[in-house]
Amino acid sequence: MSRIVFVLFAAILTDALTAGQVNVEPNTALLNEGDRTELLCRYGRTINYCRIEIPGEQKVLNLSPEWSKTPGFTYYGAGLQAGQCGVTIERVKASNNGQVKCSLGVEGEELSGTIDLVVALRPQQPIIELLSKPNREGYFPEGTQFSARCSVRDGRPPANISWYIDNMPANKRTSQLEIISTPTNDNVELSTSVQEIQWHLSPEDSNRKLVCRSHHQTDRETVPPQEAAYIINVRYAPVHQPEASVYGLYLDHTAIVNITIRASPLPRIEWTIEGLVVSQGRTEGRYSAYEPQYLGNDEYNVTLAIAGLTLEDTTKIYNLRATNELGLTDYQVRISSSSKPPSNSLDVAAIVGIVVAVAVLVLVVLLLLFARATGRWCFGGATLNTDIGPDSEAQIHPAFNDEEELDGQDNGDEHIDTTQQSEEATPPVTDKLEAQKKADLKKTAAATAAAVIAAGNGSQTHLNGAGGVEAPPKPPNTSV
Ligand SMILES: *[C@@H]1O[C@H](CO)[C@@H](O)[C@H](O)[C@H]1NC(C)=O
Ligand SMILES: *[C@@H]1O[C@H](CO)[C@@H](O)[C@H](O)[C@H]1NC(C)=O
Ligand SMILES: *[C@@H]1O[C@H](CO)[C@@H](O)[C@H](O)[C@H]1NC(C)=O
Predict the structure, then answer these.
(1) What is the H or E stretch that residue 400 is in?
(2) Quick check: 120 and 156 in contact, CB under 8 A?
(3) I want to staple 115 with a disulfide (CB 3.0 to 4.6 A). Which of 100, 107, 283, 473 is the partner?
(4) How far apart are CA 39 and CA 35, in angstroms?
(5) What is the Å distance from ligand 1's center to 132 Cα?
(6) Where's the Ig-like domain (predicted)?
(7) Whose CA is nearest to atom 5 of ligand 3?
(8) For every one of its 480 residues, what pLDDT tens digit does the chain have, with 9 covering 90 and above?
(9) Which ligand is nearest to the CA of 258?
């Protein structure tokens, strides 16, 4: 029920809108000064007249396709019969900004519509205002909460603001962009955009350029965004840095031990070498401490000269203390007569060496394993050794069996035979101890073989074969 009422109501409303209201195109026109534009008001039926009022223009325009009384403003549309009332503005002026009103004479009454005409007006150059104040020389101590405000005055529409530090997006905390209307005389309404930025200053911020850039409708390739800049100067204690090393010094020559440090303002320096203190500009014994030499961008070259460098000098640690109004920092420098840092070149060589060594080792191990597994190559003759050490024999044989399993038994017997013969052939004089060992082994082998026979483990054929050659029984594990 209520739905039907709603649909009815909606229908009546739309009907009223189409019948009684004027359509406008566009609703808002955003233009730059000097632009040409077309504005149109429409009504569903024939209109008798078309009047248009434009802010900043003295006369009310009474327009039709037939006549054009005011230069620069002409009728725009498909004709009064088509219900169209529009205007072409040749060159928009700043003063035209505001509401354009069209009045359409229709069936004894007058209907009207409005179009917002926004004529963009380039804002003023941005201004950076410091909310935190530097000292009289224009410096901020490190750690200061730096705070600045950028204002872009009198733009239409309001300008956007973005921040940069040394041409990189600043990425600092900024306040919400604030738009303040600045109404002036007449219809000229302008806006001022304001944004604040803040962060804690570190030594890295020193000599950096903070930029506030305004982005506006009127920016063109030929008219780039406007900006304001502020160079931040920070005062800070000498910046800490890890131990430095100086290489390539010559023994017996004057050695220059130098280190580059950052500080603002200029630091005073003092070297300490194993208890000996050398202030800047002074010479103590063979040591001369130079005055810090400014390199630019808050950097100083600090140098110690050592006359007639000795080997012992290269084992010392050179302590440097740099002091300015904001604090002091200690540095350590080591020196060496070798031409290059030990890490760099050696590292590469060492890594290559290790890699090659490991690769070779792996290859050798793999070859050994493979050779053992297959019983080939040098291990083929290993049978000679089988009788020397029971351990080696035990290791070799499982593999040997694997390969010669099919005709294993006969083959095994042959092996024993040849071994036996070659053993007899070797002159016993060569190594009595060795001979003794072999003899012992034969005894134990015979004993174990006897044990196997006693067990009578169905290895009848085997025993026959072995017995036929009249040799001592072979070690049991050769074929069992
Ligand atoms: C300003 O910022 C708004 C919102 O981010 C954006 O829609 C608009 O296009 C910007 N204007 C300009 C001129 O960059
Ligand atoms: C010392 O000076 C040389 C050349 O002037 C420079 O290349 C080197 O980096 C400096 N050493 C240190 C530790 O700053
Ligand atoms: C620092 O000063 C020493 C001595 O004057 C000089 O030999 C060296 O080249 C300088 N180093 C740099 C980086 O300027």
Answers:
(1) helix 390-403
(2) yes
(3) 100
(4) 13
(5) 29
(6) 126-224
(7) 303
(8) 555 555 445 544 444 445 568 999 999 999 998 999 999 999 999 999 999 999 999 889 999 998 888 899 999 999 999 999 999 999 999 889 889 999 999 888 999 999 999 999 899 999 999 999 999 999 999 999 999 999 999 998 999 999 999 999 999 999 999 999 987 766 567 899 999 999 999 999 999 999 999 999 999 889 999 999 999 999 999 999 999 999 989 999 999 999 999 999 999 999 999 999 999 999 999 999 999 999 998 999 999 999 999 999 999 999 999 999 999 999 999 999 888 766 555 566 777 888 888 888 999 888 888 888 877 665 544 444 444 444 444 444 444 444 444 444 444 444 444 444 444 444 444 455 555 555 555 555 555 444 444 444 444 444 444 444 444 444 444 443
(9) 2
Tell me: domain 244-335, CATH 2.60.40.10, correct? yes
Preceding peptide of 26 cis, ω within 30°: yes
Give the span between the Cα atoms of 379 and 358, in whole angstroms.
24
User: Which listed CATH number (2.60.40.10, 3.40.50.1110, 3.30.450.40, 3.30.450.20) goes with 21-120?
Assistant: 2.60.40.10
Ligand 1 site residues, Cβ closer than 6 angstroms: 160, 215-217
| Chain length of the chain | 480
Beta bridge partners, 335, equal 246
Query: 409-415, long-range: CB within 8 Å, 24+ apart, which pairs?
Result: 409/461, 409/462, 409/465, 409/479, 410/465, 412/474, 412/478, 412/479, 413/465, 413/466, 413/469, 413/474, 413/479, 415/383, 415/386, 415/474, 415/478
Q: For domain 127-235, is the CATH number 3.30.530.20?
A: no
CA-nearest residue for atom 5, ligand 2, is 258
